[in-house]
Design goal:
About 40% of the residues lie in helices and about 20% in strands. With about 140 residues, the protein is α+β, with helices and mostly antiparallel strands. Bound molecules: adenosine-3',5'-cyclic-monophosphate (CMP). Adenosine-3',5'-cyclic-monophosphate binds next to loops. Its EC number is 2.7.4.6.
């Protein structure tokens, strides 16, 4: 069983898309292990986006992700990392296909609504950066 970190970014929260995004993951059949509305601290944001530290858009990215509440989640399921990224759609919104979250709702790459981990190592790092172990709930999903 794999797990991933999914986050509705400040633009998604502002646009009232938390429910729509959560709903897509629920309907797909993934299991929610943790979820909270939170404001990310600057150092947490810099750790989250560490791989982009040298990119010209890094400062803007950190400003944006700390600008308002995000809805942070952990989802579990078989191949949840790659399937989530398919459901979310490409980072560049011009490449995000209809039917994906970004393809259906995002019109600008800087405001692409949602983040999903890209590999098991980054998922574990991103989860540990945003959640305590006690916030991750283990329970049985019967259907
Ligand atoms: P995300 O999946 O959260 O990971 C990095 C984020 O950087 C990305 O979504 C975009 O919101 C943002 N970003 C801004 N400009 C660019 C760019 N030119 N290329 C890639 N990502 C960008």
């Amino acid at each position: 069983m794999e797990r991933t970190f999914i986050m509705v970014k400040p633009d998604g929260v502002q646009r009232g898309l938390i429910g729509e995004i959560v709903s897509r993951f629920e309907r797909k059949g993934f299991k929610l292990a943790a979820g909270k509305l939170m404001i990310i601290e600057r150092d947490q944001a810099e750790r989250h986006y560490a791989e982009h530290a040298e990119k010209p858009f890094f400062g803007e990215l950190v400003d944006f992700i700390t600008s308002g509440p995000v809805f942070a989640m952990v989802w579990e399921g078989d191949d949840v990392i790659s399937l989530s990224r398919l459901m979310i759609g490409k980072t560049k919104v011009a490449d995000a296909l209809p039917g994906t979250i970004r393809g259906d709702y995002a019109a600008h790459t800087n405001f692409n609504l949602v983040h999903g981990s890209d590999a098991p190592e980054s998922a574990e790092r991103e989860i540990a950066n945003m959640f305590n172990d006690s916030e991750l709930l283990g329970y049985t999903r019967s259907i």
